[in-house]
Design brief:
The structure holds 2 protein chains of 2 kinds.
Chain A: H1 4-38, H2 43-55, E1 86-88, E2 93-95, H3 97-107, H4 113-118, H5 124-138, H6 152-166, H7 176-180, E3 185-187, E4 190-192, H8 200-205, E5 210-212, E6 217-219, H9 221-231, H10 242-254, E7 264-266
Parallel strand pairs in A: 5-7
Antiparallel strand pairs in A: 1-2, 3-4, 5-6
Helix pairs in contact in A: 2-5, 3-5, 6-10
Chain B: E1 6-12, E2 15-21, E3 44-51, E4 54-60, E5 70-76, E6 83-90, E7 95-101
The chains are: A mainly alpha, B mainly beta.
């Protein structure tokens, strides 16, 4: 037995260092791949489309969205994205970018917000919604997240979001925190951000909307959260529902100070 | 009518680097929809680029090119202020031309 033991230890050490080496290069490889793709990010196309849609008179009232108040006054887009979700006095709700756009599309343009919310992602007005989110987020590119979070409503939403984040349920007894509650976790070869604190919360929340290369689709935060719930085998949350906004509030506040790189590019 | 392209052209060292993003579905004709029916092929078949009206690139494309394609090429002798125009045609007969100025 004697000579075998050192050999076994040596093998173990070799395996451990090989593992660490492989893990590092995989993460580096993905970073390199993203950097290569970022130069020609097709999110640019959606951004351009969204800009056109923002300025174009549409809907039953034949009006543009240029008077839409995203939290910084009517028509102000720059810096709006990094301060959402926030409380809006006119609707008496905490709203994220998508739900706020729904409000504007209904009040200014005369669209039926409930109808749009029911539309599947990638169909009808939802396509325009995604393009608009790409445009609005792009106008705040490079800015730091700074959600106001100072009203009772916002603080309540943050608490609700926190509880949803840690709530385990469903057939797999899963929660958001199962994947995103600790440092240095990964799924397959990709690192999972710890969304309970920075830098994970800022870089995770600040990367959506994003273009996904694997399926060639532009995804808004609403769709991203929807997919998180799908992966947990939960029922889909309603588009723009308070649950999704509460989660956005939790992630956004946790990401305070983080830089927004949206619309980003993803695998 | 197809969505616009994004063209960026930057002069460097007597040449210009042109980067083009095209908005196109690029269906291969190999995929099936939810009902099991084949989604018909729909992709760009021809790409051409001109520098101040003179053809500098022509390419034949097929279904192997990704959705929302990105194309990068260098144009010899192009300088700031020159016009770069890019055109694509697809197998449905649709086409799109966009122009950019070298900066």
């Amino acid at each position: 037995m004697r000579p075998v033991l050192p050999l076994a230890v040596a093998l173990l050490l070799a395996a451990a260092s090989l593992g660490a080496w492989a893990q590092k290069t995989a993460a580096d490889g993905i970073a390199e791949y993203r950097a290569m793709l970022a130069d020609g990010n097709p999110a640019d196309l959606f951004e351009a489309k969204g800009e056109g849609l923002w300025k174009q008179a549409r809907g039953p009232k034949n009006a543009s969205l240029e008077k839409c108040d995203l939290g910084k006054g009517p028509g102000v887009i720059k810096g709006a994205f990094v301060e959402l979700p926030r409380y809006f006095a006119d609707t008496q709700r905490v709203q994220d970018m998508e739900s706020r756009l729904l409000t504007c599309m209904e009040t200014l343009q005369g669209f039926n917000a409930a109808e749009i919310a029911k539309t599947a992602f990638g169909r009808g007005e939802q396509v325009n919604m995604t393009a608009l989110t790409a445009y609005i987020s792009a106008e705040s590119r490079g800015m730091s997240f700074n959600l106001p979070n100072n009203t009772v409503q916002e603080k309540t939403m943050y608490e609700v979001g926190k509880r949803l984040f840690f709530a385990r349920s469903g057939t797999h007894d899963f929660s958001c925190s199962s994947c995103h509650g600790e440092d240095s976790k990964r799924i397959r070869l990709q690192d999972l951000p710890n969304l309970t604190k920075n830098p994970g919360a800022g870089s995770g929340f600040g990367a959506w909307p994003a273009y996904r290369v694997s399926n060639g689709q532009m995804w808004s935060m609403q769709l991203r959260l929807n997919d998180c719930y799908r992966q947990q085998r939960f029922p889909y949350p309603l588009f723009g529902s308070d649950a999704t906004i509460a989660l956005g509030m939790y992630l956004g506040v946790n990401g305070k100070g983080g830089e927004s790189i949206a619309p980003a590019i993803k695998r | 009518m197809a969505d616009p392209m994004r063209i960026r052209a930057q002069a460097a060292g007597g040449n210009a680097t042109v980067r083009v993003l095209m908005a196109h579905e690029m269906e291969t004709g190999q995929r099936k929809d939810a009902a099991g029916k084949i989604i018909p092929a729909w992709h760009i078949t021809e790409v051409s680029a001109t520098h101040n009206g003179k053809a500098v690139l022509t390419a034949e494309w097929g279904p192997a090119v990704a959705k929302n394609p990105f194309l990068q090429f260098n144009v010899k002798g192009a300088k700031a202020g020159d016009k770069i125009s890019v055109n694509w045609k697809d197998n449905r007969g649709d086409s799109r031309t966009d122009e950019a100025t070298v900066s």
